[in-house]
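COMPLEX REQUEST
Ligand: FE2/S2 (inorganic) cluster
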Amino acid sequence: MAMEVAFLAPSVSQPAVAQHMGTAPGPQPSSGFGMKLAAGVCSAAAAVGLASSRKRSKTAARYTTQTILPSLAWIKTGVKASELQPTELKALTLAGNDVLIGKTEAGALFCVGNLCPHIGTPMSEGADVIGDVIVCPLHGSSFKVTTGELIDWCVSPPIIGPLTGLIVDKKNLLIFECRQGGFLGSGEVEVLVDTNAKKAYEAGYWKGLLDAQGKDDGTYY
Ligand code: FES
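STATUS: Structure written out below.
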């Protein structure tokens, strides 16, 4: 069973907050018991005012927990292959997918996921390309850019890197098909991505959340 989710966003009026904080303009009591009494009445009235002025309204954002199927499409990157030097990398977000296009040392074009499968560090923040292998800048995990195959997992810095590697299952790097568009490959680099990837991720998130509360069909876990 899929369901629709909408946020409830509380909205509180500014005058009510000012009143509650004691910053509302108006006559102030002068001293002693009278002042305390007035302050008490004021405070109670402010609390009532705050509660009554708290409104709940629905935002336009809606999410679903239904299964979202992939929808693949070639997306232009705005980058020509001739603009990339060997070992150069360029990070892009295409239809919600974080990708990294680049060239191997031999000059072959490739496209991989930009987020390291270890803990999600962007490879674009200093990854090295050595031959046809990309090396994560944080803990040195390395992957073949043509297949995404894991070569080394969390090898640096000594002791700390391998320790961090123990807490996450080893994974390969995502890879994406890419090509040079235009006549005889003279145009922009294009990447084949799932244009539903973001929607599917959000649906999975809401399904997990609602299943944990017993409000969906319980198939997430
Ligand atoms: S984040 Fe890439 S190896 Fe740790």
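REMARKS: Residues 116, 118-119, 121, 136, 138-139, 141, 154 surround FE2/S2 (inorganic) cluster (CB under 6 Å). Residues 29 and 39 are 8 Å apart (CA to CA).
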